[in-house]
Amino acid sequence: YEMEQMAMRERAMAQQQQLMQPIAPRGAKKPKNMTTTVTRGEKSITIAIPASGANGDVLYKAFFGVTWTGITALWTAGVLASGAWLMAAFSLPFWKVGADLTGEVVRNFVAEGNVFIDEKNFRVASEGGGMKFQEKVGVQSEIVAAYVRPDGWMYLKLEDDSIVPILAALSRREAEYIASEINALVDSQSDE
């Protein structure tokens, strides 16, 4: 009986681990409420991902970022007021986290994602509000596949095992469809 339970636990853990792995989807169906524009030609694909705006995820991160930075500011002000300058230096990593959260909120709020892949090159960019958050260009033959993590985060994996994130706030279904379309193009190019 104990062996059966242990085997069931191991299978459940293996299934859970498998769910946590990124996937390279193929043949995913287009979601009905998709906001992203995907234009696929015979030998190219253009993807325009609109800025996510004020959705729940962005508002949560904004609230958390303001709270985090406010608490950090109060603590740092108290330490500086007591004259402990060296102790105030310990707050620098906390200020960095607050700045990173603020940057992520701004990026999600205003950044539009653009992906272009043809038979020779690729370009992945994220820009908006007069700011460029990311731009990566390269040779199309270096793309192994487009992957989607369980949290919906999407990226291109290159031959040298580096990744190119596609910075966008997408639902998992939308990310799987886009990755599927990219993989169909990459697969068709590698067959030639």
Provide an overview of this structure.
This protein has 192 residues and is of the alpha+beta class. Helices cover 46% and strands 24% of the residues. The protein has 5 helices and 8 strands. It has helices at 2-20, 56-81, 85-89, 92-110, 172-191, and strands spanning 37-40, 45-49, 112-117, 121-128, 131-139, 143-148, 154-158, 163-166. A 5-stranded antiparallel sheet has the order 1-2-3-4-5, covered by helices on one side. The chain has a 3-stranded antiparallel sheet with strand order 6-7-8. Strand 7 and strand 8 (163-166) form a beta hairpin. The longest helix has 26 residues, at 56-81.
Give the helix/strand layout.
Layout: H1 2-20, E1 37-40, E2 45-49, H2 56-81, H3 85-89, H4 92-110, E3 112-117, E4 121-128, E5 131-139, E6 143-148, E7 154-158, E8 163-166, H5 172-191
Beta-strand fraction estimate: 15-25%
As a percent range, the share of helical residues equals 40-55%
Q: What's the helix count? A: 5
Please give the number of β-strands: 8
Q: Gap between N and C termini, in Å?
A: 55 Å
Give the overall shape, derived from the CA principal axes.
globular
Largest sheet: spatial strand order: 1-2-3-4-5
List keywords for this structure.
single chain, three-stranded antiparallel sheet, globular, 192 residues, alpha+beta, five-stranded antiparallel sheet, 5 helices
Summarize the structure.
The chain is of the alpha+beta class and 192 residues long.
